[in-house]
Amino acid sequence: AEFGIASYIENGVRSAKAKHKMALFQPLTLLDLEVFHKPGRGLHRISEAKCYFPYRQIPFDVGKSSIALFLSEILAKVLKEEEANFPLFDFLEESFQFLDGAQGNYENFHIQFLWNLASFLGFAPGNTEELIDQLKQSQFSGANVIDANMLSELVMANYGEPFLISRAQRKECLSGLLYFYRLHIESFGVLRSWEILQEVMA
Hints:
Elements: E1 7-9, E2 31-36, E3 43-51, H1 62-78, H2 86-101, H3 109-121, H4 128-137, H5 148-156, H6 167-184, H7 193-201
Parallel strand pairs: 1-3
Antiparallel strand pairs: 2-3
Helix pairs in contact: 1-7, 2-3, 3-6, 4-6
């Protein structure tokens, strides 16, 4: 959190003699790092790394690991700040810890997460109707099938709160949110993990 978004190089993580094992660097892992950080450099080196919140379910639950992979790909595309952003870090940390510990009702987590994340990125819509209006203006073909009231209730609900929504509606809402992100982030591009998530959560 101290240095914002930064890239680090770690050699030989697949080696049996590696100082830091590859398991430490799985999607969304929460790490406590000691690093050699030099301003102006693109890559920095890790001195020490340890996981301060070992996940109990994400690595072993297909649904949760698919969501984690999906969100990690999105975060890699949208987070660019090189300065500390503690409110954003707290949001990410709390969200990931919820996902790992959830005993159920996490099927809508990634939709709620993306809605909340937009506020930290500076382009959150005022409400779901405004979101849908932007989608319509940009000629997104799925805008007309998204239920603004239903989506509003969903994104205003707490993580884990039971919410009745069909798989088709979930896909429509998520497709709309991803298109919305593309409108505001030019380099957002295509998500490789999107198809995997659809198959797992279908």
